[in-house]
Amino acid sequence: MYTPSSESTYYAGHMGIIGLDGKVYHVHPYGPVFADSLEWYLTRFYEGDRFIVFRSRLNEAGMKAAGWVHDHYKQVKFYRLQTNLRSIERNYCSKFIYQAYQFTSGLDLWSRKFTRMNQGYIYPFRIERSSELDVLGTFYK
């Protein structure tokens, strides 16, 4: 789930992934990581904010990613905009989602060939534009 840049996302955008338990897992500066009910997750945003819901084109990849976030979210210890794409401990919202797909199914939501380049920033808008994801719908708070 992607929320484009707005005042509530500090003009950078924000991402979370819905786990198999229905919770929204997301890395946030005030966390560093949360497992929120959808209702609680939405309270973090302002009226009028837009949400875009995506699903992997490969159902199995989406299910694996959703399971991975549940199993690994407690490994996030610091919110950091860090370039090491393999580090789970130092993380941020879009990198965490990127890792969930990359580490479980090998899907590169950034399309920069992770195996050749283990460094970089994974901005939310890059995942929004990924050819590996389909838009399920959009809604507003």
Task: Describe the SSE topology.
Layout: E1 2-3, E2 14-15, E3 17-18, E4 24-27, E5 33-36, H1 38-43, E6 50-56, H2 59-72, E7 78-79, E8 90-91, H3 93-105, H4 124-128, E9 133-140
Parallel strand pairs: 7-8
Antiparallel strand pairs: 1-2, 3-4, 4-5, 6-9
Helix pairs in contact: 2-3
Please characterize this protein's 3D structure.
With 141 residues, the chain is of the alpha+beta class. The chain contains 4 helices and 9 strands. The protein has helices spanning 38-43, 59-72, 93-105, 124-128, and strands at 2-3, 14-15, 17-18, 24-27, 33-36, 50-56, 78-79, 90-91, 133-140. The protein has a 3-stranded antiparallel beta sheet. Helix 2 (59-72) packs across helix 3 (93-105). It is globular, with a radius of gyration of 14 Å. The mean pLDDT is 91.
- Largest sheet, if any? 3 strands, antiparallel
**Uncertain runs with pLDDT below 50, 5 residues or more?**
none
Tell me how many strands there are.
Answer: 9
Mean of all residue-level pLDDT scores:
91
Q: Based on helices, strands and strand pairing, what is the structural class?
A: alpha+beta
Which outline best applies?
A: globular
For the terminal residues, how far apart are their CA atoms?
A: 13 Å
- Rg is 14 Å
Which percent bin holds the helix content? 25-40%
Secondary-structure element order, as H and E? EEEEEHEHEEHHE
Spatially, the strands of the biggest sheet line up as 3-4-5
Count of helical regions? 4
Strand % is: 15-25%
Which key phrases capture this entry?
three-stranded antiparallel beta sheet, alpha+beta, 141 residues, 23% strand, two-stranded antiparallel ribbon, single chain
